[in-house]
Write a structure and sequence with these properties.
Length: 180
């Protein structure tokens, strides 16, 4: 006997949409506070510019979402993404890109496309996981990097963060305690 059941994932997809909107929105707002010169600075904890760090926060969710079509989130996919984003160099361009990613992820999560949600993909982060599992893993990854960004803004640049993501936004998202 072949028994197939469908699990209602609407609560999970709504939660992911809410959290991605909050975390990527916080990343966009933080990006808009940086000057072009600040974006070119090398981070003290990683040989990467702040610009690349901010694009990384947004590009990994895009890759996780796209895995339902591409079939993976591999290191090759990541390298291709970095190459595709090399023309994004200003805070305003980060905002346009981030808003687009939020829109795509939100539409996908609202789609009710359970076959795509449940598609198992090989991922650099997580191994063989469903697309929804991958989106959850990458949400934690991007959230950790947003927290690093906030630490960098306050501790290294002595900036006040305008309209940061809130404690409620971070609620339920698992991240490491140590930022660097």
């Amino acid at each position: 006997m072949n028994i197939k059941t469908k699990v209602d994932l609407s609560a999970k997809t709504e939660w992911l949409k809410e959290k991605y909107t909050a975390i990527l929105g916080g990343s966009i707002r933080a990006s808009l506070q940086f000057s072009n010169d600040q974006l070119e600075a090398i981070l003290p904890w990683r040989p990467q510019t702040l610009l690349d760090h901010m694009k990384h926060i947004i590009s990994f969710p895009e890759l996780a979402y796209a895995s339902h079509k591409t079939g993976s989130m591999s290191t090759d996919d990541m390298r291709a993404s970095y190459e595709n984003l090399k023309e994004i160099i200003t805070p305003e361009q980060i905002k346009v890109y981030g808003d687009e990613v939020i829109s795509h992820i939100s539409s996908f999560l609202d789609s009710g496309d359970y076959d795509s949600f449940d598609r198992v993909v090989p991922a650099h982060y997580g191994g063989e996981v469903t697309v929804l599992e991958l989106l959850t893993i990458i949400l934690s990854h991007s959230t950790h990097h947003l927290k690093q960004t906030y630490m960098y803004m306050t501790d290294y640049l002595n900036m006040d963060i305008i309209d940061p993501a809130t404690t409620d936004d971070f609620e339920g998202i698992i991240t490491p305690e140590a930022l660097i």
